[in-house]
Specification:
With about 120 residues, the protein is mainly α. It has one domain (about 1-120). The protein has 4 helices and no strands. It has helices spanning about 1-30, 50-70, 75-85, 90-120. Helix 1 runs antiparallel to helix 2 and helix 2 packs antiparallel against helix 4. The longest helix is centred in the last third of the chain and has 35 residues, at about 90-120. The chain is elongated and about 65 Å long. Keywords: Membrane, Transmembrane, Transmembrane helix. InterPro entries: SdpI/YhfL. This is SdpI/YhfL protein family.
Amino acid sequence: MVETIALVFCAIVIIACGVGLVVIGTRMKSGKFPPNGIVGTRTEFSMKSEENWYFVQRLTGAPIRWLGYSMFLWIPAFVAYKFTNNDDFLYVTVALQMFLIILFWIIYFSGTRRHQNEITHKD
C-alpha cells in the first residue's frame, strides 16, 4: 500500500515537471522569455548579448519540450513495474531521457558554433 502511494506521488510530481518543461520549452521556442537568470538556457554564450539569448532559446526550446513529453512515459513505466514487476520499461524511459539530454547539448553546441561562424564571416 505504501509503495503504491509513493508511486502515485512520484507520478504526480513527474507529470507536473513534464508539463512545466513543455510550457517552458514552448515559450523558449517562441522567444517569449526575455534575458533573465532564472528560466531558459543560461550559458556564457547566451548571456553575452540579447541576440545570443533569443537565438539560444529558440534553438533549445524544442529539445526541452521533447524532454517534457518524455516525462509522461514514466506513468506507463510505473504501471508496468507495479503490476508485472518488469523493470524493462523503466530502463527504456531512463535511456530515452539520457538520449534527449545528450541531443539537447549536441543541438546547443552545433547551433552556437554555426551562429558564431556566421557572425565572424559577416564581418
